[in-house]
Amino acid sequence: QVQLVESGGGLAQAGGSLRLSCAAYGFSATHYVTGWFRQAPGKEREGVCIMAVDGSTYCTDPVKGRFSISRDSYKNAIYLQMDDLKPEDTARYYCATDVGEGKVILLNRRWGSWGQGTQVTVSS
Fold this sequence. Notes:
The protein is mainly β and 124 residues long. It is 0% helix and 52% strand. Strand 10 and strand 11 form a beta hairpin.
């Protein structure tokens, strides 16, 4: 059974950093596409960064140059390093993979499984 468990969210000041973790269970994170997404109150869920099977990464324009995605094959985990945080980064952050039956389409890809999310709040 595929399961994703996020951690590492919290309160940060503008200009600060946070590192989110996502533990993957039931599949190998190195064999499937994985990604981080976020959703702010009253807004649609949006893509943040994704990582392909070959390790290549893509981050969307709002976070490019400030956020980065990585993975640890031994821990079977995915990470989101967030630097130079801004108040507009405040949102609930989710990790996802294309494994599973889900049908959410974001960044031109179907995402099958999602974690429960972790809240990030950035104060000015």
